[in-house]
Design brief:
Two copies of one chain form a homodimer.
Chain A (H helix, E strand, L loop, with lengths): L24 E2 L4 E5 L4 H14 L6 H4 L5 E8 L6 E8 L8 E8 L10 H13 L2 H4 L1 E10 L4 E3 L3 H5 L3 H10 L18 H4 L6 H12 L5 E4 L2 E7 H7 L7 E5 L3 E4 L6 H35 L1
Antiparallel strand pairs in A: 1-2, 2-4, 3-4, 5-6, 5-9, 6-7, 8-11, 9-10
Helix pairs in contact in A: 8-10
Amino acid sequence: MVKMLKVPEHQVAGHIARDGKLGPLVDDEGRFFKPLQGDARGENEAKFYESFSSNKTVPDHIHRYFPVYHGTELVEASDGSGKLPHMVLEDVVSGYSNPSIMDVKIGSRTWYPDVSEEYFKKCIKKDRATTTVSLGFRVSGFKIFDHQESSFWRPEKKVVLGYKVDGARLALRKFVSSNSLADSSSAPNCAFASDVYGGSNGILSQLLELKAWFETQTLYHFNSCSILMVYEDESILMKGKEDARAQVKLVDFAHVLDGNGVIDHNFLGGLCSFIKFIKDVLESSDNRDETDACGIENGK
Amino acid sequence: MVKMLKVPEHQVAGHIARDGKLGPLVDDEGRFFKPLQGDARGENEAKFYESFSSNKTVPDHIHRYFPVYHGTELVEASDGSGKLPHMVLEDVVSGYSNPSIMDVKIGSRTWYPDVSEEYFKKCIKKDRATTTVSLGFRVSGFKIFDHQESSFWRPEKKVVLGYKVDGARLALRKFVSSNSLADSSSAPNCAFASDVYGGSNGILSQLLELKAWFETQTLYHFNSCSILMVYEDESILMKGKEDARAQVKLVDFAHVLDGNGVIDHNFLGGLCSFIKFIKDVLESSDNRDETDACGIENGK
């Protein structure tokens, strides 16, 4: 039986299966097919998923931050090159109608000990040109569902990779705002900040759970790995808080290495910096709420 | 009145005032005189001390991890070049008879955004050659008082800077051991681990207090800064736990920059890695104590 695979609708970074290029595919049953690249990276990522998915020392509440792995399968590649081995993963946005998504690459470097000089030079140039060195993370891409326009708004890749500190901060505010998407003149209102970033099921509380694990885990070093943030903004507007379905997933494990008894201080440092940025958005939107509340009080 | 200044007895890293070279001096009243270097570094360090010592937003329990600053003073330089401006600091080992000391440079890089290419290249070469990149810290130097020999044991600088992961781990075990100093064939016994690293006043608990501050502070980025660990091992042997006088101090602020609203993820990541190493030493020595206790029980 031939599976009906298609190009994912909601990818915001990485190789994209378009115009006859090789990239990931999805089916209608919530599975994501990621081609094993020709070089060692694909093999390394599959090896990581094999190791991680069967690792009993990783607690269940941590396993849920990673896409479920269903092994590898030969499927028709998106570039028409015939059947190629693909990793079969959970499609983390399956079940969302109009997910807003952001991909944030964590760490203050994307290179690591023992890489080739060529790879080192390529990485460090990009790390210095983006916020990787200065912030310990860089936004790789995002898209936001604009419920007024009933369409997605997404900034150009070139613009995103050109962010400095203020650009990254603004993107994290914009990501949870209902206004000012295409319009850069008005300030993001952070209307969804408390529903998406805050609360006991929100992004911040998930990031803090990950942080606690990274403070002690010495199994893996997650070089060049991303945090994916997903939520459904339409459902917040329609049904209220419990439906934001805010979710954090770790993705991209082509450069994961054994930890060898050392914590992943590169990922952890960047994660702590990212957490501080999310907290800052939450705090400023809390203050805004209070100001609004005061305004209402005073207007009585 | 001419002050009687002398070369510090207990310096384990940095420029040393010996053989007519420029370096720090101490007096008999617990003060440490650090010459302002000719280039911007000295000025930058003095500027940091001025800013930090008067910063009321830094909590008191954090101020105590930094040497007290008494301003600058013109004193006779150690290299015979006449009077030079010196920062007047607290001599953190004043009052100790025979302090064991370790200097650990924190961070997975010693360079930072906007440095010259020359400085960047010099730093990254050393960061990759030492454990700075792999561990997020490197041991810069240490000395241990050997109470059997009544003298200090210290490894050569070249040896210390050549440590890999295992070397750094061994140094942190050796630092709190009463055996195997010059003898590399027997394993360090970690006899002082629980007195020095453990307990409510020990190194670990001080490091955790610093970590909590670094998770939120966005005032300063402590590039190329060191943690100094000091304790008095003789007094443990003579008087017991409360006299280890284990102390953590941050030193070397020539490359501190404004945080500009971003946490120091480089220092924090390295600090978390260092904390994990200290915890590992403590845990292995706890296990050893239990084994010993079992041995005694069984021998009854």
